[in-house]
Every structure is written in structure tokens, then in C-alpha cells.
Amino acid sequence: MNIRERLSPNFNERPKGAAIDMIVLHYTGMQSAEGAIERLCDTASQVSSHYLIDEQGRITRMVPDEKRAWHAGVSNWMGKSDLNNCSIGIEIANGGHDFGQPPYPQMQILALIGLCRDLMARHGIPSKRVLGHSDIAPARKEDPGEWFPWDVLASAGIGQWVEPAPIEDGPELAEGDRGDTVAELQFRLASFGYGLEVLGVYDVQTKAVVAAFQRHFRPVKVDGVADVSTIATLVKLLALKS
After folding, report:
1. pLDDT (tens digit, 9 = 90+) per residue, 177-205?
2. Among all residues, which ones are annotated catalytic?
3. Which residues have a Cβ under 8 Å from the Cβ of 90 and sit 6 or more positions away?
4. I need a surface site. Which of 76, 100, 110, 221 has the fewest CB within 10 A?
5. What average pLDDT does the structure give for the chain?
6. Helical H runs in 103-227?
7. Architecture per CATH, 180-241
């Protein structure tokens, strides 16, 4: 694998004994890969990632794996917070929601698959621990976006995926709802990994988590409403873990 280097000064040491057990995927949300690299190397930005992949599939290493890059921010998964401590961050050059949601080119995705496979093998990272920034920070982030091809990665053994349940009419849970059915939904989402308290109230955080789940696993409709399709897809994914 051909990897060039442009080292960022924005990193520090991982906590002693912290194992690398997660990969977090981001989009750059900028108009060019070059601009993103400059920002990730700017000390004023206070952000960085371990790798960046441009639209042509060229990989740039920006922070050594063993160092703690600053890509995840306030984050949570499976009850664990401050995920910069245990993760590898990969920025994928893409304009994101602010710049037209451009498709991810095939060469870029092929390079990402190769890099993820290499990192998973070298660090013993489980497939299910390859996540999007929106999964670990659902109230703040939307990347890598609902048009990111998670199904293609899963077919290559990276990440989790099931065929989303079809959208159909039926009961829905939405912001403001209360009761045991809301608590059951929150319990399922938390059991899957999302940082969510089981309160029995469909609050703003629950809506954000549901939208993040949809963005990753039921991307045809992202609205934060737990409809029949969303819940059925979640149940299918949880069945894979049992």
C-alpha cells in the first residue's frame, strides 16, 4: 500500500495502556483534499486525523497510529467516552452536506477498504468497531453521511450491515412521546452501542441517535422518527450480536 506522509502537529500521547480497538470514518466537509490537509496541519484548528484519503484514492498519513489524533471530539460508544484515546481516525475527502453531498468515487472507497483491512489486521480491530463520526457523536455530527456506501464496506468485511427493512405504514415513535415503548427503543439503541440513556422520554438526544442510526443503517429516509422500518432494521442488527 502506497502511503505518503504529511505529518500534523496536532496530536498527543494515548493514555498508558489504551488499546487501539476502533476506526472512525469522517468526511472532510471541504471543497478540496488539499484544503483539508492544510486545516488538519494548522495548529489553530486543533483537529487532526491519522489518515486522509483523497478522491483519487491517494492515502496521506498525518498522525502515527500509536499517537492520539484529535478527530472524534466529545464521543461515546458502548458506554466508553473520549474515543480519541482508542481509535484511528480516517478523513475521506468529500464535500459533505455543505457542498452538495458528492458521491464517493470508487477508487477512494477501494483505497479505504485496503486501509481499513490493514489497520484491522495490525491492531486486531473487530469489524463491528468500524463506525462513522455520526454514530459516536450523533448530536453534533452527520459524517460520513447517508450516501456513504456502508454496504460496500460490509461486503468487504468492514463494519456492520443488514438489508434495511422496507418503509411501510405503521406505528411511529417521535419527539415528545413517552412510555415503555420509548424506553424499549432506547434500551435497544444503547445495547447496540449508541450513547443514550433509557428514560422513557423521546427527547432531543433520542431523536439525534435515531437519525444517526438511520443515516448509517436505513439511509433512504433520515428524519429521527422511529418508524416500523427503523425499528425492524435495529432488531435485525441486534440479532447478529446475539
Report:
1. 999 999 999 999 999 999 999 999 999 99
2. 91
3. 23, 24, 25, 26, 49, 50, 51, 52, 53, 112, 115, 116
4. 100
5. 97
6. 106-123, 133-136, 150-155, 180-192, 204-217
7. Orthogonal Bundle (1.10)
